[in-house]
Every structure is written in structure tokens, then in C-alpha cells.
Design brief:
Length: 177
């Protein structure tokens, strides 16, 4: 790996974070790139990456991601960042860590790590359930986006999906006794 590889990828990452847009997000990724956030059952690739960021920026239109520090090793960059945005009519700040495996100045494999429970205070009902999976506001956001993206891809391959459990309805619903 050359310094220009990770430096170019990091520069794109910083540009996206300062003024997020779908075009800037997509510009981060290698054509074979993937992205995965907490709550996503599998990494997204191809058009699903665009669908995800459109949904995320629609849900949090004033999202800003500010890289604070980073370190590199070979083709991998770890970035510690501060995220801000308005969720449920409240301005919030949450820390995150991003792991970017780069190739030719683009992200080949992007992974985000953050504590979704930090948002539980936005809904008193969620605070009591913060230890359960998929119960915070951001869980719902990411989970819902991931389900729609994955559901769209799976329904193309296997037919319609159950809205409760995401199984193919032709294979039976896991939510129905």
C-alpha cells in the first residue's frame, strides 16, 4: 500500500463527512466495495449502498461526520469520528469508529462501529429496553433501511418477503405459529 492510497480514501471520507451527499458517499467506494453498519445482517454492495445512504440522509438530513484521529496499517485505515445530527427533533452527538479497507484510493470494505444505545434517551420507552437488540432509534433507522434494501434484493430473487420476519413468504413465515 502507498500513502497516496489511504490518503486519497481518507480525503474522500473527510469530504463526505463535512458535507454529506449521496454522490460524495458513492464516490468513496471501489466498484466492488461493501459497507456494513451496526444492525445490518450483512454487508451491502452495489446499488444497495446508494439506497442505504439515501435513506440515512433522508432520516438525518443534517448529519455531519467529523474525523478526529486515524491510524493506518497496510491497506486499512481506522478513523475515530464525532457524528452529529437531528433525530426525533433533538440534536444529538455520538462517537463512532470506522474501519476502511482501501484499494486505489477508494473504500473496498467499510465497517462502522458505534453504540446505538446512546440514542435510547430520545424515546423513554426505548430506554427501558436498551439491552435488547434492535430497540434504539438508530437501530430502527438502520434496521429499517437494511430490511428494505435486503428485502428488495431478496424479493427479486425469491419472491415477496414477510414484513415481520423478512423470510420469503413462499418458504413460510417464521413469525406465524
Amino acid at each position: 500500500m502507498t500513502a497516496e492510497n489511504w490518503e486519497s480514501a481518507l480525503a474522500r471520507f473527510q469530504i463526505f463527512g463535512a458535507a454529506p451527499s449521496t454522490a460524495r458517499y458513492l464516490d468513496l467506494f471501489d466498484p466492488a466495495g461493501t459497507v456494513q453498519h451496526p444492525g445490518m445482517p450483512e454487508p451491502l454492495h452495489g446499488p444497495a449502498i446508494g439506497d442505504f445512504i439515501i435513506g440515512a440522509l433522508t432520516a438525518v438530513p443534517d448529519f455531519i461526520m467529523t474525523p478526529l484521529r486515524w491510524c493506518t496499517r497496510d491497506d486499512t485505515v481506522f478513523v475515530e469520528a464525532r457524528n452529529t445530527g437531528t433525530v426525533a427533533a433533538r440534536r444529538i452527538v455520538w462517537p463512532s469508529m470506522y474501519r476502511l479497507v482501501t484499494r486505489a484510493g477508494r473504500v473496498l470494505e467499510g465497517r462502522a462501529f458505534y453504540d446505538r444505545a446512546v440514542l435510547a434517551h430520545l424515546d423513554p420507552g426505548l430506554a427501558d429496553r436498551r439491552d435488547e437488540p434492535h430497540t434504539t432509534v438508530l437501530n430502527g433507522l438502520i434496521d429499517g433501511l437494511a430490511r428494505r434494501v435486503i428485502a428488495g434484493r431478496m424479493s427479486e430473487r425469491n419472491g415477496p418477503l414477510c414484513s415481520k420476519c423478512s423470510s420469503t413468504t413462499s418458504g413460510g413465515c417464521a413469525s406465524t405459529p
